[in-house]
Amino acid sequence: MNATTIRTRTGVLGAGLLLALTPTLPAAAAGTPTPGAESDAAPETGTGRTVIGDGHIDMGPRFDHGRWTVQIRDDTVRPATWRNTADVVLQVKDAAKTEVPEDRQFGFLGAPGASVWLLPQVQQDGVLWPGWNSQEPRVATTVDREVTWQLTGVEGPGGFVLFVNGSFGTPKILFDGRKKLPQETGIEVNSHVHGNWAFTKPGTYLLDVRMTARTKDGRSRASARTLQFSVGPQDPAKAFVAKPPADPRPGPGTTPPEAAAHEVSSDGGSSAPLLWGVGAAVAVAAVAGTVVRRRRRRRSEGEGR
User: Fold this and answer.
1) H-type helices in the chain, by residue range?
2) Considering the entire predicted model, what is its pTM?
């Protein structure tokens, strides 16, 4: 597979963003609910379009009525609610705007002094704090080892980079949308991680993501969805875009929109391709039968002459 594989252990991801990048960045506020805690999550998927521009959210896999799917866990409401990605715009307000520091380690963000909109690894008041987790109860208990998270497509006016800071502030890039896709990283089972989501220009960004795993019963699970971001001062409602997800089936690459519309079921299979295959087989058989009948008719006509 032509993917950039970067696997990161969650134990080294606890450090905040380097002080030079966000000099006023505070630590997480005392009393903040534990991110990823599942005991308080609503059992049903939330409905209705929602713009989230502040507080904590996570993206991750979930079994929704037995079906493996990528959703967004919204911790800005009580009870916490899982939402479909198509119903959510993640707003990156101008409060998240900062400048690329002089430190050469951050050259991948642009030239020193250039503007960048950054959702940081450590919580900041007034700025969205997105993470990712594999802590949904059924995911945590049934997935074998880890979930594979792929970035399969990026649309936007500028560059997108997701990176984390290690114990010494050294950045490690997980995804860089300006480079060849797909790229992937691993999420250890029952883990919760935060990183730095960087956007180099304001506007709407659509990130195609795909999460796969193998459960302990040997079944393959896969789901592809699109994350919608509104960056900068625009009306965030503009980021609600009707866009089909990337190919949800195992293997690299994407498929045409009509094929991509079929989500993989909880047992790793999709009924739509099967039905198409049956229909195609019937059509082929019908054509073959017609050809045989025509040949027999011509043969009998020739013998009767």
Assistant:
1) 137-142, 257-260, 271-304
2) 0.73
